[in-house]
Amino acid sequence: MGLKLGISICDDYSQISCFDDDTGTVTCINSAGSLIGPRIQTVLCKKKGEDEWFIGQEAYRLALSGGGTMVDRIIKLVLRDGFATIDGTKFSSKQILSRYLQKLVELAQTACGSTEVDSLVVTVQELSAVLSDALIKAAEKAGIRRNKVSIYSHCETMLYYLLSQPADIYSNLVSVFDLRDEGLFYYEMKVVRGRKPLLVSAEHEKLPEGFSLDVLSSDSGRKLGDTILSACAERMLSGKIVSAVCLTGKGLANIDFCPEFIRYICSRRRVFQADSIFSDGAAYAAADKLRSESLYPYLFSCEGRISSTVSVYALYGGRREQIVLAMAGANWYESKTVVNFILDDTDVLELSVSPASSTHVETISIDLKELPKRPNKTTKIELSVSFTNEKTMTVRIRDLGFGELFPSSEKVIRMECKLP
Amino acid sequence: MGNLILTSSKKTVHSYYSTELGIHLYSAEELCYFIYNNLMLLDESFLDDRLKDFIRNELELPETADKLDKWRDSCDFGELLLMILQDIHYYSGHELMRFSEELIRIRKEGSESIFLEKGDYLFSIGKYYAALNIYNKLLTGRNGIMSDRSKRALVYEHIGFSFARLFDYGKALASFINAYKNDPQPRYRKDIYFISRLSLMKKEPEELLGVPEEVRSEWDDEYGKAVERTDADARVMYVDELMSRDEIKKQKGLTSLAYKLKDDYRRSQG
Predict the structure, then answer these.
(1) Nearest-10 Cα torsion for B9, B15, B21, B27
(2) CA dist list (Å): A325 to A337, A357, A384, A392, B50
(3) Most B CBs within 10 Å: which of A346, A376, A405, A408, as the mutation test of the B interface?
């Protein structure tokens, strides 16, 4: 049986988790390859004069000893389509990401003693098409086929992690504080009951009070950190019924510095630390993708998931049916639908948009008058629906004509729609 | 209210070639459209094994193909066509009703008028030789249907039009003369006059003797307008426009036009 891996990549550090089929749990893998510790610095170093690459601590060590050139902030580099010159050679950001991911996968393969990867979910703080494309290609270069790879947001994988915990954890709101070099992040998850399937929504924000972890190296800094965290907790949790608070991130791996904060969040709530919540969640998701029936029968509403169901009414087998083009709760990056229709006495395409969180239905009308005039029922169109983020849908309509009777004009109508 | 019809995105591997129209059909919807709009062209030979193979294997409608086999002896040709249309769901109930009515009309009306209609349909889609075959069958057929001289004249006129479209002006003239002989109507004289002018005949046929000057003048006006319409024809204008392009584009355009004309010619043969 192959590996089910979850990898979280951020600019400061990465984490790898592997799902264990026997126990149904996940284990985090560290850079030394043993199954104990969580964080691998997101840096890549090439040994001078040789085609040998290192990541994490080893990369730092090599760079500090002057034995190689190191690249950091790899995610930002990809997002701005940059490059780096290493050992006299120019490498594109995608090549660097590819090398880095390959090393991470190798690390997991060595630690778990298996080279086969059945499913890989890579999770990033914020999803974008550019980053997702680059990660998919990087995984392909690492020898993992495209259909085995998914890219999720931290929000999504957090949901997988929390929903894999005992149900009393998420009987009400669950708050997650993530303190890391990149800032202080707050996540909130709630299960909306009384509908089928149950709706699980998650939101997150980067709190402006975030501080550098270097501050925690002094007594006064630690006190300041505690004060900041307490103020944030009060602001974010007051007036809410929170059943559990989860602490994660390098900054909260040790909570000795923030007694006030801990005292506040522990009042009438369950509090727990989870060092690798995002990569663990990604590993749970990777395993779930292989199941014929998901263990998470919820409608996910969060960053990375489509917020509304988009459908169109059409005749099928002589009956008027609702054809779903995009399902609320589906991962936007993986959602692409292509359907062919024949226009019957209409030059308008009407899409129904139903937000997951309400019963209100909106209609998006797309004018098809630009298509060539032909006898009725002799214009076939290809309708494709894809997404550039969870709220932005791109609709593309291509004239297919009607065989040799009415050849295609190749006309294409494009429209970008904002979903509620 | 308008609708969308959901269709399969799958493209057939092997198309169905319609010998009647000289085109390939690639989908169930195209087949329906072809049947619905070309009923006049079709006869029992249409429901052959080639069509059934296409329906069974390419359109993946084995049940429809089986039904065609099963009901072949007990249903008439029209009912079998209707069965295909019903199974594919491309046409609405209302449209299928209209199709049934058309089948009933064809059945009710005598073979003479249906044959003439079929000939005219073939003419309208540019299949002049096929149209001529039908017209000639009407004149010489076993039924001897053309006892009515005015109807014979009409058929001769249509034969004349077909020959004119095939640039065989001599035969066209002979047909118009036959039409006039069968039914001495002024319209047939006008046909004779037009074809004489078109073929630049030096000597006018005797059927035109005695046509008053004012009538000739009217016909001349009409002829002039017809020539003007031809000059303004999109295809003629396209050729003019092609000739003004640079050598490469001109050559490319003329080659593609030549292919199109060849294709039209091949279709007209048949």
Answers:
(1) -20
(2) 6, 18, 8, 14, 37
(3) A405
Flag if B6 and A340 touch (Cβ within 8 Å): yes
Predicted local distance difference test score (pLDDT) of residue A35: 44
Structure tokens given for B195 = 């074809």
Radius of gyration of chain B measured on its C-alpha atoms = 23
DSSP assignment of A70-135 equals EE--HHHHHHTT-EEEETTEEEEHHHHHHHHHHHHHHHHHHHHT---EEEEEEEESS--HHHHHHH
- ipTM of this complex > 0.90? no
Contacts of B8 in chain A (CB under 8 A): 340
pTM over 0.90: no
Position B270 scores a pLDDT of 56
First vs last Cα of chain A: how many Å apart? 42
Residue A187 tokens read as 């996540």
Which residues, 6 or more positions from B180, have their beta carbon under 8 angstroms from its beta carbon? B153, B188, B189, B191, B192, B207
Q: Any idea of the CA torsion for B38, B43, B49, B51, to the nearest 10 degrees? A: 10
Q: Inter-chain contact A340–B9, Cβ cutoff 8 Å?
A: yes
Pairing of strands A3-9, A117-124: parallel
- The count of CB pairs under 8 A between chains A and B is 79
Would you say how long chain B is, in residues?
A: 270
Asked if B209 reaches chain A (Cβ–Cβ under 8 Å), the answer is no
How far is B20 from chain A, CA to nearest CA, in Å?
Answer: 13
Contact in structure between A247 and A271 (CB atoms under 8 Å): yes
Is A315 within 8 Å of B3 when comparing Cβ atoms? yes
Question: Which H or E run contains A395?
Answer: strand A392-401
Residues written for chain A? 420
Structural contact between residues B16 and B59, judged by C-beta atoms closer than 8 angstroms: no
Write out pLDDT tens, residues A119-145: 999 999 988 989 999 999 999 999 999
Residue A23 tokens, joined: 């126990």
> On the CB side of A274, how many CA atoms lie within 13 Å of its CA?
25
Nearest CA-CA partner of B116 in B77, B159, B177: B159
- In A238-370, which residue ranges form alpha helices assigned H by DSSP? 259-265, 277-289
For residues A311 and A323, the answer to whether their CB atoms sit within 8 Å is yes
Which strand (E) or helix (H) includes residue B242?
helix B234-243
Q: Are A387 and A393 in contact (CB under 8 A)?
A: yes
Q: Looking at the partner chain, which of B5, B23, B25 has a beta carbon nearest the beta carbon of A344?
A: B5
CA distance A351 to chain B (A): 11
Choose among A388, A386, A381, A387: nearest CA to A412. Answer: A381
Half-sphere exposure of residue A254: CA atoms within 13 angstroms, side-chain side:
6
Taken in order A310, A313, A315, A319, is the CA torsion positive or negative?
positive
Q: Mark the ranges of chain B whose per-residue pLDDT is less than 50.
A: none
Tokens representing B26? 């690639």
* φ, ψ dihedrals at A112, nearest 5°: -95, -5
